[in-house]
Design goal:
This protein is α/β, with parallel strands linked by helices and about 230 residues long. Helix content is about 20%, strand content about 30%. It has five helices and 13 strands. It is globular, with a radius of gyration of 19 Å.
Length: about 230
Amino acid sequence: MHNKIDVVIMAGGKGERLMPLTLNTPKPLLKIGDKPIIEYNTDHLASSGIKNINIAVNYLSEQIITYFKENNKHKIHFNFIKESKSLGTIGALKLIEHFTNDYILVMNADLLTNVNFEAVFNNFLSKKGDALIATIPYKVNIPHGVVETKADFVTDLKEKPSYTYYSNAGIYMFKKECFEFIPENHFFDATDLIEILLAKNKKIVNYPILNYWLDIGKPEDFEKAQQDIKHLKF
């Protein structure tokens, strides 16, 4: 996999919901157990054979750059992309001069996950998608009988149904040509790009994550991560 995909980790956010922890430390460098959040991701990518990693940085960026200069046991070649202003969850990709490969994995730095990146990539190839969104399946059980209607008429009765919804996990895969739709120097989220691709009838693959996944956004997520890491296998 290592010579087929490029990787971009988005690490520019302020982590405002985790203040005061993020007052002097960028969120990706907050420690879960004995190492920073982002390092779990770089280590996990390295174990998948990835040797080159782009990291988009903004808030307290020098700390992240310095950290990886001093802590790089896997001899990863890091390329830091500095945002001069906040560019959303994918806008910074326009600052990357060129990609080596046709497939690019984009992920948020503040995720704790042991998702199998090789499996994500193989799934993307086999489905011949233009882009892929990794998702977290949520099953919702309705405890009552549901009456389905259209206008004023009943169309169906369902007894205590369950529905599965998918929420965005902050891990994406794109074919390189998708990036031509990212505007220059604008705040632009990955979801904005996906919406454009959908409007252009591009093929977007849904990849449900069945492994461990946690988005560390709020203090309670941070606390949960501290407990979960004790048992988590990478």
